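Side project, low priority. Logging it here so it doesn't get lost.
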Amino acid sequence: MNKVILMGRLTRDPEVRYTQTSNTLVASFSLAVNRRFARQGEERQADFINCVAWNKSGEFVSKYFKKGQQVGVIGRLQTRTWDDDKGQKHYITEVVVEETYFADSKRDSSTADFDSSSFGTDMSAPMGSDSEFEVSSGDDLPF
């Protein structure tokens, strides 16, 4: 099984490009994901994980995700190689995004450049899934 679940902050705005052969949209971005534990006397460290979203997921990411925003991503790990112009081989490991979530608190996301009422759907559900969970207002939550 190959499944990756991440929550982190975007290190930059997503970069959008189109494939040469089929003109398919692909959005690339990097997530800063905090490590679970910090060594005593040191700051908590983060891993910077490359992610790539294709087609509708890529369109969604490019339209609504911005630098610094906390997001959740579910996908699969993929490695690939290529040779550059000088014949040198390059390797990359990245997460191919299958589902995306907004993970900022309601107060944090109010500063974003979008209005959830313009989506026409319940944005508490993941993009590309049929979730039956409903998120209520923060006042009802016990934490």
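Brief comment: Residues 4-37+44-140 form a domain with the OB fold (Dihydrolipoamide Acetyltransferase, E2P) fold (CATH 2.40.50.140).
Revisit when time allows.
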